[in-house]
Amino acid sequence: MESRPSSTPPLLTLAQAWPALLAWTVGWAAMCWLDGTVDLANLAMLLVLSSAVASLWLPVWASALAGVVAVLAFNWGFVPPRGTFAVDLHQHAILLGAMVVVNAILATLTAALRQQARRAGDQARRAEQLRRWGDTLRDAIDPLAHVGQLQEALAQAAGVPVALLVLKDKLPAGNDDDAALHVGQPDADQQAGLWVCLRQGQAMGPGSGRHEELADAYLPLRGRGITLGAAVLCGLGDVPHLADLRDHAQSLCDQMGLALQRGAAARDEQRAREQAQTQGVRNALLAAISHDYRTPLATIMGAASSLDEQGDRLDLGQRRRLARSIVDETTQLSRLTDNTLQLARLDAPGVTLRCDWESAEEIVGTALNHARKRDPQRRVRARLEPGLPLLWCDAMLMSQLLDNLVDNALKYSPADSPVEVLVRRQGDRIVLAVQDRGAGVAPAWRERVFEVFHRGAEPVQPGVAVPMGARPGAGVGLAVCRAIARAHGGELTLRSRSHGGSSFECRLPVREPPPAAEVGGSAP
Amino acid sequence: MTLRVLLVEDDRELRATLRDALVVEGYEVLTAASLSEGLALVAHATRPGGAADDPAIDLVVLDLGLPDGDGESLLAALRRRHAIPVLVISARQAEGQKIRLLDAGADDYLVKPFSIGELLARMRVALRHRGTTVRAAVTHYRRGGVEVDLPAQRVWRDSAAVHLTPTEFKLLARLVRTAGQVVTHRQLLADVWGAEFTEHTHYLRLYMGQLRAKLETEPAEPQMLLTEPGVGYRLAEAEE
After folding, report:
1. Is B165 left (phi over 0), alpha (psi -120 to 50) or beta?
2. CATH number at B4-129
3. How many CA atoms, within 13 angstroms, populate the side-chain half-sphere of residue A444?
4. Which of A271, A291, A310 is the last residue of a domain?
């Protein structure tokens, strides 16, 4: 019952004809049956009754026609002299005349009533549709996802095919079809019409007062002072009660327009917030890095300027020491630069790792080799579980991670205590741990040591042991370690050891290594 | 005869520092600030009194990330004419390019910042392997109690013979021939297993592990069979 004929409606539908025919048949049957038992006036009342019942279904013209035919037939069959159209008595003529008039009035009234009822039904349905549509949009996080529902709602309301064009974001300079979401199958003309409607923000087509000659009605999806899309109702010209329907369709479209505008505003807000946050993180990072650079730079400046200005007054040993401290501090700066660079790289979206099958033994071996330069007493020891699987990782990054952790452990534990690098398998994870016997990290700092250095966020009280992360140099190093672990689908955590000290533990997922059976297939 | 080095580096300060340091070490140094300048020097440099096809340059130190392109064209020009060793200087960000050049035949690399000592050591190794000094092609290797005799295919550790499988020996022999220099994963896989195995890095992990277990005192902290993460392997220089 919701659908409307899209072409010219037939004069009389089967659904209207059957009940009317039945009413007439019953009426005539009753009249024939009662003929002779009751007088003519009573039979005539049966006729009026049948006509009234039939007019509940029939259109006005059909009711009127049926009434006239019925009166003629009544006249022919029941009014004496029977079998002729002649009217015998004066009173019968009044009866017949009254019947025709009553029939006509009944038919008109019933039809008007029926039409009013239908319009009221339509209004109620539309109100209900609007309410449901409003509910859908109110709960929608992304109104764009409901464009299909708008098309359905419009098609249901209008009973014609509907196509939509909805902007994904800002209005493009040209009619760029990629910048919009398309629903339905508009032809090239309709597509162009949609863009025109979208750009002008005004309805076009039948009943709109603009381009009345068009066969299709174009409706804009309006927000407040902005148009975010357009809809075309194909072939709307012939639909009855066009104005009501247009108003309703426009309401549906405008609800969508407003929802889209709300969505766009929310997106803008989110974007602005993220931007502010990114800016904040970047500023913190820059401040931290600049601070970390200052110390080695100061040493280098001191040593180099001393060599430059006092060189001829220094003995060989002093000059050597100064040169040595420049080399050492430069190494420190170089590591800091590597860490900063890596942090920036891993932070960027769509970072690609250069992963390969790597052996844990080799990665640990490289880290030990690097550490020995800063570890003349050989405090660093490695323990690897035998039979470890190969790791799928970026070797450069993993050795950077271990370098940083070992460096950190050497720096923040007593000069004679051991530092251990442990590698073992734990279920479907490989654990690389670097453990020291230092002062450990206060519980409040256990997560924060991984954050990029933010000195001053919590003033350190005098006399309280400065936590590891609050000292210069640790921030970027541990932050990049965590970034590396996460880029590999793993995690880096800090655990306090039961007898003092810290254990930094990097857990990496174990991947199925390639089959090793063919290894050495072409041995000499 | 003084050894002649071509230094291609666009940073003026670093170029001057390196040149001074090399001159102190007794090298003759030609400098170029760009790739085109370097190419011109390679094409036209002649040694006073030298024969026409005598290489006018003994070694090239090539910085990646020059303003007028990457070093591959220079490497190709050098390789076309003579087997002149090339040392690549790279920054951290130029990983891919560095490995490409090594695969294409550059001899070794240094990552900025590096010390003069490292540079000189790498240059010495590179020059030795090109036979420009007295040393002939490497056939023997000795370091930290390990001895390798390539012609006899024998290996000893602390004077006891070590049994290696054929593949292990082939891998070790490949590293001995360029001892002191980095060999990329690709080169090792191609030379030991064959060109179709260049992606099978896990073979290398397995066999290097076995070699270390047989030859190193402390396999977890190798002194001889060194790993260059993400690049390849390096057999430590032989003891003099």
Report:
1. beta
2. 3.40.50.2300
3. 6
4. A271
Question: What sign does the CA torsion over A279, A285, A286, A291 have?
Answer: positive
Average pLDDT for runs of 10 along chain A of length 524: 45 80 88 84 84 82 83 82 74 78 84 86 89 85 83 85 86 82 86 89 85 86 87 77 83 88 87 87 78 87 93 91 92 88 83 89 92 86 91 92 92 89 93 90 79 50 42 68 92 89 93 62 41
- My answer on whether A98 and A59 are in the same domain is yes
B207 and A520 in contact by Cβ < 8 A? yes
Q: Which amino acid is at A365?
A: G
Of B165, B203, B229, nearest to A366 by CB-CB distance is B229
**CA–CA separation, B145 vs B154, rounded Å?**
14
Neighbouring residues of A395: CB distance < 8 A, sequence distance ≥ 6 = A356, A358, A362, A363, B227, B229, B230
Which ipTM value was assigned to this complex?
0.86
**Separation in Å, CA of A313 to nearest CA in chain B:** 23
Residue B170 near residue B192, CB atoms below 8 Å: yes
Q: Please report residues of A whose CB lies closer than 8 A to that of B221.
A: 365, 368-369, 382
Both structure tokens of A325: 């401290």
Q: Which residue has the tokens 């073979």?
A: B203
Question: Do the Cβ atoms of A61 and A104 come closer than 8 Å?
Answer: no
pTM of the full structure: 0.64
Same domain, A486 and A362: yes
b/e burial code for range A29-47 (CB count within 10 A of at least 16 → b): eebeeeeeeeebeebbebb
Q: Are residues A370 and A303 in the same domain?
A: no
Question: Is A520 close to B201, i.e. CB distance below 8 A?
Answer: no
**From the CA of A284, how many Å to the nearest CA of chain B?**
24
For domain B140-235, the CATH architecture is Orthogonal Bundle (1.10)
**How do residues B72-115 score in pLDDT, each as one tens digit?**
888 888 877 677 889 999 887 777 888 888 988 889 999 988 99
